[in-house]
Amino acid sequence: KANTATISDWKGVFVYCEFRRGALAPVSLELLGIGRKLADTRGVRLSAVLIGHDTGETASQLIGHGADQVLRVDQPELADFSEDSYSQVLTALVKEHKPEIVLAGATAIGRSFIPAVATQLNAGLTADCTKLEIREEDGLLMQTRPAFGGNIMATIVCPAHRPQMSTVRPKVMKALEFDGARTGDIIDVTPVPAQLASRIKVLETVVCEESNVNIQESEILVSGGRGLESDKGFALIRQLAEALGGNVSASRAVVDAGWISYPHQVGQTGKTVAPKLYVACGISGAIQHVAGMQSSETIVAINRDANAPIFNVADYGLVGDLFEILPKLIRKIEEKRGA
Amino acid sequence: MKIFVCVKQVPDAKDVRLDPVTNTLAREGVESIMNPYDQHALEEAVRLKEAHGGEVIAITMGPPQAEEILRLAISCGADQGVLVSDRAFAGADTWATAYTLEQAIRHLGSADLILCGKQAIDGDTAQVGPGLALRMQIPFITCVQKVRSCSDQAIVVERMMDDGYDVVEAPLPSLLTVVKDINEPRVPSLKGKMKAKKAEIQVLTATTINADPACIGLPGSPTQVARVFPPEARGERSVLSGTLDEQLDQLVEKLTPYL
Ligand SMILES: Cc1cc2nc3c(=O)[nH]c(=O)nc-3n(C[C@H](O)[C@H](O)[C@H](O)COP(=O)(O)OP(=O)(O)OC[C@H]3O[C@@H](n4cnc5c(N)ncnc54)[C@H](O)[C@@H]3O)c2cc1C
Ligand SMILES: Cc1cc2nc3c(=O)[nH]c(=O)nc-3n(C[C@H](O)[C@H](O)[C@H](O)COP(=O)(O)OP(=O)(O)OC[C@H]3O[C@@H](n4cnc5c(N)ncnc54)[C@H](O)[C@@H]3O)c2cc1C
């Protein structure tokens, strides 16, 4: 177990920057935004940890977005995500540099291997945070997160262990504007072969056509529910999404019906999203659905039942028949955008 | 094949609210259920047993009444239920929970496969599975949506990613966490219910599993809940008025910043 006496040895902020198949996950830049703030408050350095292969110019991009230094681990063995190798590489870097705070995105990858890193380090880990601040009295990281499907919020601290680790929900923190004038060090790290070894093997990667987009990263989501009645009805959702320049998501009822695949499900047993605009069409607003979308900036609901609970969280509500409303709305939006 | 399934008793989410005065969970009248993801983990374990032979052991850390979900597990095909229960475990975070489950599973002998849910719908962290695997020193794969094949040596699964899925192979023993897509859990059979009623549930305490007091319960937990509070209420909702056409025009106007 970590020893209280050594806490002062831990300094600096680490941000794990997720890179997969040639692209940086946008949440990484958001983490650098909040990481910069925390590092400045603590008067310490902000390090970006970049793990993957063929990362190209990504490291300088990370500097431009706020990192003081980038620890780059670019190896062919790391081309595919593996719980084993990624957790060993990151654990070794944390042990060496002893940062007081480690942040990662609460994505499929982050939530998969970061718990293993925390366990190896005997560190606490707070899941899926939506707010991070430094407490003035003692410099502790106050980590706030929803639990019980969003019904309650909890603020968590790790007083006696280092590092303090959090996964952070995408779309909640703000990235800094890219600033090409920012300078920083890029340090290439070569892990020992044992860290690159993976007991698990990725045999194949399948990108679902429509799942190309991660709905957690979307600014605008048009979400359909059972009220669309059929696969064909659901096509209206795709049209509206296209008109708005957004992506498509759905309630569980729709995923269960097979009109769209599971990565598009919003809710307690699907994904938690917080886009700028969420349009709920023919969704009743069951608590398990609302848990996944209630932190959206603006919520529009369309439902023929004026008493549908979705209206309790909606900023704008339209009561009426979808099959009448959606085609009109699509036309009006297209006109507006065309104008 | 010896398969452990980690199951957690959770409050039925739709009933959970914070008492606005005391800021504590209003648990009165709230029903307890088996964590929904764990039902899928259990179903997958039973299917693997049916296909390859072996036994399925459902294990939970929780208060005495968590025995209910172990009986439910047996009625759905588990061979045994193990309750890891002790006052000293109270207040465990995911680190301490993973430690406790590790000690308990080691006490019960070796595992070929450990199955967990993707996450529990109360704590919502999804951290216990990976933490447990790390402690058991076995590989793990999270968010498994399908088991493609399984032999004595290895398992091939589909791991859900944010943009699709990976086909991944792991040697056994391994730990998997599963999503609901993986299967449709069965309902308990009459015979299963009878068996569950009669089954003896093994209870393990902190002493039986030889747990280090500094690693369990609240004292063993690196994270501490400093405060709980209700989520911020959303602002007033704006009313759209007039005919449908007029309402739509107002809406499109409001949406202009997003276009
Ligand atoms: C443990 C658990 C986990 C769950 N997890 C999730 C989750 O992650 N995500 C999720 O979404 N659900 C989840 N659910 C399911 C959830 O409880 C609801 O059953 C589901 O959200 C309902 O989907 P829906 O709103 O599309 O359908 P319904 O509830 O059937 O609602 C359809 C709505 O469409 C309206 N409608 C119908 N026809 C029209 C029309 N022509 N014009 C306008 N409106 C119309 C109706 O008035 C109704 O309000 C979960 C349930 C459980 C028990
Ligand atoms: C409001 C609140 C916020 C919290 N936030 C955090 C946090 O950020 N970090 C943290 O470390 N702890 C946190 N905790 C503590 C955490 O909820 C408990 O440690 C809990 O015992 C396990 O975590 P979980 O419910 O998130 O399970 P998850 O990790 O989400 O569960 C995943 C799977 O692990 C298995 N599993 C989990 N618990 C058990 C069990 N008791 N017995 C058998 N199998 C089990 C199941 O298969 C389950 O599907 C929080 C608790 C509360 C009340």
Keywords:
heterodimer; A: 339 residues; alpha/beta; Rossmann fold; B: alpha/beta; nine-stranded mixed β-sheet; two-stranded antiparallel sheet; 6 helices; 14 strands; 28% strand; binds flavin-adenine dinucleotide
SSE arrangement:
The complex is a heterodimer of chains A (339) and B (259).
Chain A: E1 13-20, E2 23-24, H1 27-42, E3 46-52, H2 58-64, E4 69-74, H3 83-97, E5 101-105, H4 108-120, E6 125-129, E7 131-134, E8 141-147, E9 152-157, E10 164-168, E11 185-188, H5 193-196, E12 201-207, E13 220-224, H6 231-244, E14 247-250, H7 252-257, E15 277-281, H8 287-290, E16 298-303, E17 316-319, H9 322-338
Parallel strand pairs in A: 1-3, 1-5, 3-4, 4-11, 5-10, 6-10, 13-14, 13-15, 15-16, 16-17
Antiparallel strand pairs in A: 1-2, 7-8, 8-9
Helix pairs in contact in A: 3-4, 6-9
Chain B: E1 2-6, E2 9-11, E3 17-18, E4 25-26, E5 32-34, H1 36-52, E6 55-61, H2 67-75, E7 80-84, H3 94-107, E8 113-117, H4 128-136, E9 140-150, E10 154-161, E11 164-171, E12 174-178, H5 190-198, E13 202-204, E14 224-229, H6 244-255
Parallel strand pairs in B: 1-6, 1-8, 6-7, 7-13, 8-12, 9-12
Antiparallel strand pairs in B: 2-5, 3-4, 9-10, 10-11
Bound molecules: flavin-adenine dinucleotide
The level-1 CATH class of chain B: Alpha Beta
N-to-C order of helices and strands of chain B:
EEEEEHEHEHEHEEEEHEEH
Any idea how many domains of chain B? Answer: 1
Organism (chain B): Desulfopila aestuarii DSM 18488
Keywords (chain B): Electron transport, Transport
Protein name (chain B): Electron transfer flavoprotein beta subunit
GO molecular function (chain B): electron transfer activity
